[in-house]
Amino acid sequence: MVNEQKNIKDNILKLLYQVKGKIISGVKLSQVLNISRVAVWKHIKALKESGFDIESRPKGYVLLNHEDLLLPFCFKKEFQKKIFHFQELESTMDKAKFLAKNKALHLSVVIAENQTTGRGRLNRKWFSSKGGLWFTLILKPKTPPQLSYIYNFAASLSLSRSLRQLFGVDVSVKWPNDILLNGKKLVGLLSEMETRGDMVEYLNIGIGINVNNQPQKNEPKAISLKDVLHKNLSRRLILETFLENFKNQIQTIDCHRIIELWKKQTSTIGSHVRIETLTDAYEGLAIDVDEAGTLIIKDNKGKIKKIIYGDCFHT
């Protein structure tokens, strides 16, 4: 019964989406779905309460912001079976971990409209306000753990390229894998992996993009695309463009090429930085990122330090 009710709701959303922002009458929905108009009204009410932007009008119903809908049927056919969409999750990373262990396909995507316990690097809280794009990529690369780092660089590179391509925004990548706009955090990335023997079983990359939300309330040093472009944007267009670019980027893994392309878009090299790990902190001038993704800094005494991981702050 629960699955039947969910299928009816999904079908209502699909019908509303297919008319691309036009009104569809309750009578039409009733006829197509073979349910009563009262049942249509109840399902519409439940969809509204769960967060879908559906407006009731005298002649029927209309789905607002249909270009922003993130349900599987809205994506290109090649991605549809790989999209897992939820109105609310504790964390897309936790859900992705479960799905990765239960035969989710390579390049699957777990999306949540809201996360109640989203997390960032070093277990910091990640605020997931409405209008942002919160998702986790499930990757199953045939690669040893030592090379897993390159997928993080490929993800931030592909996403920064996608945002430049779509909106002409002057974004930059920050080591190890954030994306900045106007010096403020636009995108955060977090990766987790599990190995089996000497190979990666799965690698999950959590990505949070401030799109149509207002992050400054909880994160003063954050920014959204809407803050800069002054209009609502299609999160689906962003995600689909990124998936295309990322898929092409990782078809043939060339660590040297990916790092060199990444370095052309970074604002970290040449900046004075502070790196914080769970146990230490380092400061200095960022002078390079090597082929293994290691950040190389020079402190005020001229000593060279190579840093494998940590949170990076431009100072």
Short structural description:
The chain is of the alpha+beta class and 315 residues long.
Protein model, in words:
The protein has 315 residues and is of the alpha+beta class. Helices cover 31% and strands 28% of the residues. The chain has nine helices and 14 strands. The chain has helices at 2-18, 26-33, 37-49, 77-80, 92-100, 149-167, 225-229, 235-249, 255-263; strands at 54-57, 60-63, 83-89, 108-115, 133-139, 171-174, 178-181, 184-196, 199-209, 272-276, 281-289, 295-298, 304-307, 311-314. The chain has a seven-stranded mixed β-sheet, sandwiched between helices. It has a five-stranded antiparallel β-sheet with strand order 13-12-11-10-14, with no helix packed on it. Strands 1-2 form a two-stranded antiparallel sheet. A hairpin with a 2-residue loop joins strand 8 and strand 9. Helix 2 (26-33) crosses helix 3 (37-49), helix 6 (149-167) crosses helix 8 (235-249) and helix 6 packs across helix 9. It is elongated.
Between the first and last Cα atoms, what is the distance in angstroms?
57 Å
On the 0-100 scale, what is the average pLDDT?
A: 93
Largest sheet: 7 strands, mixed
Q: How are the strands of the largest sheet arranged?
A: 3-4-5-9-8-7-6
Number of helices: 9
How would you spell out the order of helices and strands?
A: HHHEEHEHEEHEEEEHHHEEEEE
Oligomer: single chain
Query: What global shape is seen?
Result: elongated
| Residue runs with pLDDT of under 50 for 5 or more positions | none
Share in β-strands: 25-35%
Structural class: alpha+beta
Cα gyration radius (Å): 21 Å
As a percent range, the share of helical residues equals: 25-40%
- Number of beta-strand segments: 14
